[in-house]
């Protein structure tokens, strides 16, 4: 039968968390196996040098080089060591040259030893959780069929670009695009082929939105929107004409002599303090209505 203290030591070294016990000056008095192993694999202090080094000083050196995570860890750690906070934890990136990694650091008093001034610092690798969260966040911004951004992203982008163009007094361009005869195409070829048609159109649109200040999204159904920062009406017209040409060139036949085409409403203006995202959208939508009414496969302002 293993003695209880021996059992506790074994548990300490079996845990996946990297654990260090420090005193109130930051001096490391003990570390577990995971802490030593992490140091060994990441070119940090030699395992035998962990105990006896000062964790606060290590963080101070890193913070002085501008390491934001070290600065934050340092502040949190000091607040616990001096008794201002009962415990502190925060998540931070710690990428290696080979992989992206995130950790959560926690510091709290050592159980039953607060008076003696001992504290436990733990680091836990949360990379799998963070990657899953990032993937979910990306999915929440994408239209699953076409891979373009969705309506939510569009609003965020437009709000940001509107502010930027107002500040720089540059024109902000917006195109609203609705496919023509798409229902007929769907009816003739089936829904799956209709989906492929939307994907082909999306490809054309993303080829026309390549700069960081451009965005192409699918608003829903056969409706798309494109926003262009710092783009005049003349430039916008050229882009819209090129899009119409490229969609025609797809030759998506929906009945004899009739192909899927697009109607585009556009607006470009230099925002003033009163310009809203809603006004911009409304103007492009009315222009789209005029393009449809004018016979489709065309554009209107
Ligand atoms: N395949 C497919 N069809 C869709 C999807 N979303 C909407 N639709 C169809 O898209 C069609 C859109 O209708 P309309 O805008 O009236 O079609 P349209 O023939 O282009 O009409 P006009 O704009 O007046 O030329 C409807 O038949 C919808 O069922 C989708 O994700 N996949």
Automatic annotation (TrEMBL):
Pfam families: GGDEF (PF00990). The keyword Chaperone does not apply. Residues 170-301 form the GGDEF domain. Keywords: Nucleotidyltransferase, Transferase. It is an enzyme of class 2 (transferase). This is diguanylate cyclase. The keyword Nucleotidyltransferase applies. It comes from Roseateles rivi. It catalyses: 2 GTP = 3',3'-c-di-GMP + 2 diphosphate. GO terms for molecular function: diguanylate cyclase activity. It comes from the Bacteria. Its EC number is 2.7.7.65.
């Amino acid at each position: 039968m293993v003695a209880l203290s021996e059992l506790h030591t074994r548990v300490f070294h079996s845990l996946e968390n990297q654990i260090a016990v420090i005193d109130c000056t930051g001096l490391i008095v003990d570390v577990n196996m995971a802490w030593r192993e992490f140091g060994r694999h990441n070119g940090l202090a030699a395992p035998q040098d962990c105990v006896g080094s000062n964790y606060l000083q290590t963080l101070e050196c890193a913070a002085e080089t501008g390491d934001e995570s070290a600065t934050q860890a340092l502040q949190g750690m000091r607040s616990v060591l001096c008794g201002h906070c009962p415990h502190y934890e925060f998540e931070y990136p710690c990428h290696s040259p080979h992989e992206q990694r995130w950790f959560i650091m926690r510091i709290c008093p050592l159980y039953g030893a607060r008076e003696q001034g001992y504290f436990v610092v733990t680091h836990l690798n949360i990379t799998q959780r963070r990657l899953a969260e990032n993937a979910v966040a990306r999915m929440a911004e994408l239209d699953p069929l076409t891979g373009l951004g969705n309506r939510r992203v569009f609003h965020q982008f437009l709000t940001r670009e509107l502010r930027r163009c107002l500040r720089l007094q540059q024109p902000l361009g917006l195109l609203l695009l609705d496919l023509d005869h798409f229902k007929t195409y769907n009816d003739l070829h089936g829904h799956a082929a209709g989906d492929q048609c939307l994907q082909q159109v999306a490809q054309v649109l993303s080829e026309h939105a390549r700069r960081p200040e451009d965005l192409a999204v699918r608003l829903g159904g056969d409706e798309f929107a494109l926003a262009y920062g710092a783009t005049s009406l003349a430039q916008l017209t050229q882009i819209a004409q090129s899009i119409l040409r490229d969609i025609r060139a797809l030759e998506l036949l929906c009945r004899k002599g009739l192909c899927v085409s697009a109607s585009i409403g556009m607006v470009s203006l230099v925002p003033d303090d009163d310009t809203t995202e809603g006004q911009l959208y409304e103007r492009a939508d009315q222009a789209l209505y005029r393009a449809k009414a004018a016979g489709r496969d065309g554009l209107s302002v």
